[in-house]
Specification:
Length: 167
């Protein structure tokens, strides 16, 4: 990874974390749809990111969010879970022609349909794990499922909207 690419990744990482803490934290619709754009720090990393680096970045970004949300590691755990599943999901969604090594995970390079499916899948898994840990009761499964679906739609919409402002 070149130095300019590394600096770009660090700025990208910081942008989404600070955006989550200072602006998007208050974005809640009807107490069912929450916006967690910080998952883009994991979901939109390059294809060639090593699994170890992916899990470490996920852990520390989740821990950073946990400090501000006072959630005792729930964001870190759900972030690490999607980081662990990310290579498998990318393999399942591999286009017929494969990935070009120079491609980045962005709306402009992957296309709208692919990025919506990918982001939606990753966001759904993250949010389901997060809300199930928060509820810690299978009796609330239906409520958790509704909350997960609403939050997935809002998060996917906002992350895709932010992709239009990324060069």
């Amino acid at each position: 990874m070149t130095q300019s690419k590394l600096i770009s990744q660090i700025l990208f990482f910081g942008f989404y974390l600070l955006l989550q803490i200072f602006f998007v934290r208050q974005l809640v619709l009807f107490n069912y749809a929450f916006c967690f754009v910080y998952i883009a720090t994991i979901v939109l990393l390059d294809f060639d990111t090593s699994p170890t680096a992916l899990v470490l970045i996920a852990f520390f970004s989740g821990l950073f969010i946990d400090v501000f949300y006072n959630t005792l590691g729930m964001h870190a755990a759900s972030n690490v879970f999607i980081a662990f599943l990310r290579p498998t999901i990318l393999t399942l969604l591999t286009p017929r022609r494969g990935y070009d090594e120079r491609m980045t995970l962005s709306l402009s390079s992957m296309g709208f349909q692919w990025i919506v499916i990918y982001l939606g899948t990753m966001a759904f898994i993250h949010h389901f794990v997060l809300f199930m840990m928060e509820a810690s009761d299978l009796g609330l499964f239906l409520q958790v499922l509704v909350k997960t679906i609403c939050t997935t739609i809002l998060t996917t919409f906002v992350v895709i909207l932010l992709q239009f402002f990324r060069k």
